[in-house]
Design goal:
The chain is built from eight helices and six strands. It has helices at 3-19, 22-26, 36-58, 69-80, 84-103, 127-141, 153-167, 196-203, and strands spanning 113-115, 121-123, 168-177, 181-193, 213-216, 219-221. Helix 1 (3-19) packs parallel to helix 6 and helix 7 packs across helix 8 (196-203). The protein is globular. Residues 7-142 form the Mycothiol-dependent maleylpyruvate isomerase metal-binding domain. Residues 59-89, 211-233 are annotated as: Disordered. It holds the Pfam family MDMPI_N. It comes from Nocardiopsis endophytica.
């Protein structure tokens, strides 16, 4: 994945933010307890958090994404009420800081281990992939006209395969995901077919299974037979 993909996703989100009225900013998003303004503020502060971790990795030291959960929430709350143009400007400047941090990373430092706020440890090289997820999934979470159907084909193909690999062997009923792989444990059970963006949206909790074609042993069954995938960490 190239930085161009992140830049394009950022610009799409910026355009959405710019046109939101104050009333729309204050309206609920698809995320519990968060307004659209909370989602936009989170995306900006997340970029700053990742930039800080990249700077630390460049210097060979560990750094937390956020000082604390309380500080993270306070920053998001503080930025949530701003009008659309201010949100859009923040998205751009925080994204520029992120791009600068990426450009400044020496090649040998991309293998440096960093720690997510959940405690998961991974290489700094994965941070760019995390950024595109923040942009694309949270753009949908705004509930402002951008849907999984707007996701780019390359993004959908890559992330659908990644999610199926992630959920292979998970504590779920076994489901074959059309032409990609199988999630869950146990003998072959259900098969889910449909647009790849709809399959990904279901697996990452951005939509229900409605609209997917579900079969068991070749016989069509209701989409409600599909399990609910675990929430993203």
């Amino acid at each position: 994945m190239e930085m161009k993909e992140i830049e394009q996703a950022t610009e799409r989100l910026v355009r959405t933010a710019e046109r939101l009225t104050p009333e729309e900013i204050a309206a609920p998003s698809l995320l519990p307890r968060w307004t659209r303004g909370h989602v936009l503020a989170h995306v900006s502060r997340s970029a700053d958090a990742v930039s800080g971790v990249l700077e630390a990795a460049r210097e060979g030291r560990e750094a937390s994404m956020y000082p604390s959960e309380e500080a993270r929430e306070a920053d998001i709350d503080a930025g949530a009420g701003r009008p659309g143009p201010e949100q859009a400007a923040d998205l751009r400047t925080s994204s520029d800081r992120f791009a600068a941090a990426v450009a400044a990373m020496p090649q040998e430092r991309w293998g440096f281990e960093v720690r997510h706020r959940t405690g998961r440890v991974f290489s700094a090289a994965e941070l760019a992939g995390m950024r595109i997820l923040e942009l694309e999934y949270h753009h949908v979470d705004l509930d402002a006209g951008y849907t999984p159907g707007h996701w780019q084909e390359a993004f959908v193909d890559r992330e659908l395969r990644s999610m199926v690999e992630h959920l292979a062997g998970a504590e779920l009923p076994t489901v074959e995901i059309a032409d990609v792989g199988t999630i869950g444990r146990g003998p072959a059970g259900l098969r889910a077919d449909g647009p790849r963006a709809a399959l990904l949206a279901w697996l990452v909790g951005r939509s229900g299974p409605d609209g997917l074609t579900v079969t068991r042993d070749g016989e069509r069954v209701g989409s409600e037979t599909l399990p609910e995938p675990p929430p993203l960490a």
